[in-house]
Fold:
Amino acid sequence: MSDKPTPVLRESATFDRLTIQEIQRAAETGIYDIRGGGTKRKLPHFDDLLLLGASMSRYPLEGYREKCGTDVVLGTRFARKPIHLKIPVTIAGMSFGALSAQAKEALGRGASIAGTSTTTGDGGMTPEERGQSQHLVYQYLPSRYGMNPDDLRKADAIEIVLGQGAKPGGGGMLLGMKVTERVAGMRTLPIGVDQRSACRHPDWTGPDDLAIKIAEIREITDWEKPIYVKIGASRPYYDVKLAIKAGADVIVLDGMQGGTAATQEVFIEHVGIPILAAIPPAVQALQEMDMHRKVQLIVSGGIRTGADVAKAMAMGADAVAIGTAALIALGDNHPRLDEELKKIGSAAGYYDDWQNGQDPAGITTQNPELSRRLDPVEAGRRLANYLRVLVLEAQTMARACGKSHLHNLDPEDLVALTVEAAAMARVPLAGTNWVPGQGF
Amino acid sequence: MNKFDLATDSVRELNQALHDQAKELTEREWHVSNPGGKHNLAVGVNEALSIDIDGHAGYYCAGMNQKATVTVHGNVGVGVAENMMSGVVRVKGSASQAAGATAHGGLLVIEGDAGARCGISMKGVDIVVGGSIGHMSCFMAQAGRLVVCGDAGDALGDSLYETRIYVKGTVKSLGSDCIEKEMRAEHLDELKELLHRAGFNEDPASFKRYGSSRQLYNFKVDNASAY
Structure:
C-alpha cells in the first residue's frame, strides 16, 4: 500500500466544469446555447440590502393592528382612466406562445383575485386572458404580432416595449417547435417556423419619433388609457429621461435578472445591468424632471419576496412586476414534476428549457396534452396566494420601519451589506454613513 | 359633408369626431383642410368613412385604419397607414419611410415614391406604389403583396417571410433569403387585379416577382453566414 496521499483534485477557477462543458457543447454543435429563465450566476441584488427596523429613533407600527396601505394608481399624468390597483405587485408581460393559453388565463385569474394587473406579450391578446383579467395591460411590441386597434381599445393600459431586462437590445425567438396553428395564426406566420421578434420598432427610429408614436396611440384610444414605456435596464438615467420627455405615463424598468422565454445564454448572463443598479439612476432622472411619483415607476427583474418588494419601493419604485416568480407560483419546476423533468434531462428547480415546449407543468408549452395539465383556476389561486404573501411580507417590514403605506418607505430605511451594493443602490454601507461616490 | 379646418380645429377634435362615428354614424363624407403636415391625422378610424385630407400629412396618417377610405391630396410622413387592418389609404403624392409598416389588411396606394422600409413587417396588407421605393423595404415582411411600378433600393425583402413582391423596374440588391421567382399565370392574374384596384395602367408581364427562399425559416448553423 502506497504511503502517498490521495491527490486533491483542484478545479480551475477560470475553466470550471461548467465552462468546460459549455466549450465542449459549442464545439459539438457549432451554435450558441438558447434557453429560457434568467441569470444563473450571483449578481448584486436586493439581498445585499437590509431594511432598518425601528427601535429608539424611529417609531414602528403594530404589525397585526395598524394599517399599512398598499394601493397604487398608475397613469395619473395624462390618462383619463388611470389604473387603480389594490397592491403594488403586477404581472409582467409574457407572451401567449411562450406560455400556454391555460397559463395566461391563470395569470389573469390570480392577478384579478389579488387586485392587480397582468400583461400580454409578444403573441397578442387572447380571449382567455382578457376575460379573466380585471386589469389588462396590452403590450405594443416591435414585432406587432396580432396588434390591432380592437384589442387596444379593450386594454386598460398600453405598454410600449423598447427592451427586456434579460436581453436589452435583443429581439425574441420563439422556436418552431412551439409554433402551433393557433400561435402561428395570431402571429401571421407559417406553422413550425422560428418566429423572430424584431429588436426595434419598425416605424420609428428614436425618442423624437417615440413622442409622436405615443401621441398616435393616445389619439387612437382617445387619451383614456395610461401609456407605459418598458425599457431593459442598461442606461436607465438617459432612457428614463427620454421616455418622460416622449410622454410616458408609466415607466417599466426591467433589470437583468428578469426572465425570458428563449434567448442566448450569453445574452442572459452578460447584457444589461441588475435592477439594484438600475433603480437609483432612474429615480434620479424622475426627480430631476420633477416627475417622481407623477410618472410612476414599475421595476422588475428577479423580484421574489416581500423583502424585495419593500426594498424596491424604498429605493423609489411605485410598484414592482413579477414574471418568473409568477410562473413558479403557477406550478413551474414543482417537486412533483421531478421524475418527468429528469426524463428530459433536467430536474425540479433546474428546468429552464422553456424554449423547447416540453414543460411538464403545462406552462411554457404549446403541446395540448401538456398544457391541459394546468388547471387555470387552481393555478390562479396559487398565484393569488403568492401575491398576498408578497404584500403581507412587504407590509410587515414597512410597519417595522414605521410606515403606514408601502409608498412611505424611502432610501433612509435601507443600508447595504457590501460596498458594491452601497455604491449601486446609493445607500450607506451598514454601520457607516458612507455612500460610495458621495464622500464621507 | 363634415368639414374640419386644422388651421382652427385640433387634431384631437378631428380624431374624436371620427371615432364617434363608430358609435353613431352621422356623416360618411369628411373633408380636412390645412393639415399642414400635422401628425396622427385620422388614426384609429373604425367606420366606413370617406376622408379627404387636402394637403400634406405628417407621421402615422391613417394609422391602424379600419374600414375607412382615406385620401391624402399631398405627401405623407413616416408610417402612413401603419398597422392598417382594412379599408383603403391613397396618397396622391409621395410617402416617407415605413409606409404600411406592420399593416394587417386593406389596400395602401402611393401614387408617387415611398422612402425606406416600405412595407416593413407587413402582415397581410396590399401596397401598390406608383413610383420607386427605398432601401430595406419589406424587411421581415410576413404576408400580403407589395407592387412597385418603379425601382427598388438596396436589400429588398431582407429576411422575408410569405409576402410576395412585384417590381417593374430595377432592384438595387436583394436582402438575405430573398430571391427572384417565376411569374406564373396565377401571379399575373393577382398582379393584374392589384394594379386595377390601385388604378394603375401597367402591363403585369413587365414585372418580376420576388419572395422568400425559406432557407432561414428555422435557424441552422449552416446558415450563420447569412445573418
